[in-house]
Amino acid sequence: MYPDNWKIEEETDQSVTLESPDGAFLAIVQVTEEITPGDLLQQAKDAMLQEYEMIEEEIEPQQLAGSSFVAEVMRFVYLDLIIVARLMVIPYSGGLYLAHIQGVEQEIDNLTPVFNAMLTSMCASIDQPQP
Prior knowledge:
CATH superfamily: Mog1/PsbP, alpha/beta/alpha sandwich
Strand content: over 45%
Low-confidence stretches: none
Shape: globular
Helix content: 25-40%
Number of strands: 7
Number of helices: 2
CATH topology: Protein Transport Mog1p, Chain A
Number of domains: 1
Strand order of the largest sheet: 1-2-3-7-6-5-4
Largest sheet: 7 strands, antiparallel
């Protein structure tokens, strides 16, 4: 589920990208290949580091739909704007999802409850593995 004023920017069988009216986005990719959550997160981080220079990184715990996850938060400057990217790996019974949230820092701060609601809705609808 996502807000009515957001649009689907791209959609395939394994991915969807939703964009806010102001340009922030949430991209979710389904990964069915054998890979650990840590390795998937590292691959996503490496891709970001190849694309952008001078990235600050920090780990941030997340709670969604009663499950705990670790998010990698990255900040960098692009066109004189501070951009925030949040990468999170969400396990499910058939593999992993990689969630990538990105946008201008102020917009991300304002939209965090909306992103969390969308991800909580997704987590509640997937079959998550039991610990």
